[in-house]
Amino acid sequence: MSKRPSWRTPLPRPITIPQVMTLKTLADVRKLIGHIPKERRQLYTWQHVEATLQACAAGDDPVNVSVALQIVLQAERVPYKVEPYSKEPGHGPLN
User: Fold this and answer.
1) What is the spatial distance between Cα 64 and Cα 56, in angstroms, rounded to a whole number?
2) Model's pTM, two decimal places?
3) What is the band of 90 on the pLDDT scale with cuts at 50, 70, 90?
4) Could you report the per-residue pLDDT of 58-81, keeping only the tens digit for each?
5) Rounded to whole angstroms, how far apart are CA atoms 29 and 14?
6) Torsion region of 38: left, alpha or beta (phi above 0 gives left; psi -120 to 50 gives alpha)
7) Which backbone phi and psi does 85 adopt, to 5 degrees?
């Protein structure tokens, strides 16, 4: 039996796309992808982000989807900002 996807998994650092949304969890990334037009989601780059997202929801390191997403945003010249590490316990560069 396979494990249920964990969409509440936090990203290592929030990613803010100005005037669009701030991505804090895998669920936020999934929501963003859902708003991208179908034709654009069919591009290899977005398919890779989707596949990486699914793998992270199944237990892979969420850093993988964060990096994949940032590369696609850069390639498409979408402005974004990676927010500072959270000060909450269990979140940050050493956790």
Assistant:
1) 7
2) 0.85
3) low
4) 999 999 999 999 999 999 999 999
5) 10
6) alpha
7) -60, 145
